[in-house]
Amino acid sequence: MHSTVSFxxxxxxxxxxxxxxxxxxxxxxxxxxxxxxxxxxxRLLLAARKHNIAVFHAAYRRDFSLRPPRPFEPGAANGxxxxxxxxxxxIEICREVAPEQEETIIHKNxxxxxxxxxxxxxxxxxxxxxxxxxxxxxxxxxxxxxxxAMAAGLRVLLVxxxxxxxxxxxxLTGILNLANRLYGxxxxxxxxxxxxxxxxxxxxxxxxxxxxxxxxxxxxxxxxESL
Length: 227
Prior knowledge:
Layout: E1 2-6, E2 12-17, H1 22-25, H2 34-50, E3 54-60, E4 104-108, H3 119-125, E5 130-136, H4 138-151, E6 155-164, H5 168-179, E7 186-188, H6 190-197, E8 201-205, H7 220-226
């Protein structure tokens, strides 16, 4: 269902998840339409900075010395991680959304931005109520971060066109699956999210019950566009 919300007099933060060069330059892990997704994430970042909203950047940095391989986790032939190796230049955050000095960087060893352990307490210290979230990949690191945010009692605004995945289909179904159980939160596009970050009202999509979107392969695009 759609409803009108406002962030006025609410404590809000922005979380950008895994906007790293790996998503642009490492063929097995590139994000489809990454330039567009990244441009939308930059719009959110600039809006947050303009309105003095706290910004958090999460970046995957797989370090087996800190977190040994999980059971059944695939690895490279040399025993190193398959992606986001700690010494790889490709784990750098993309220049378009590069953090400024006062913005927090969370280096994580697993999918969720909350895995590193300090994010929840940092948000609690700021008394954050709404966490605006964008990132890649939608169905994995973004989804894990959304679920942990909800478990921490945060309302999540998921910005659908500032997220992406390996294919448009994976991204689209990832958003729909999250929307189906995004209790207390909402889904919007970047334009509506910008308006909310600026203190305006905007119409967002929010679930009023579990699994309201019973989509099929035939109508998934229609449902996604309606969010």
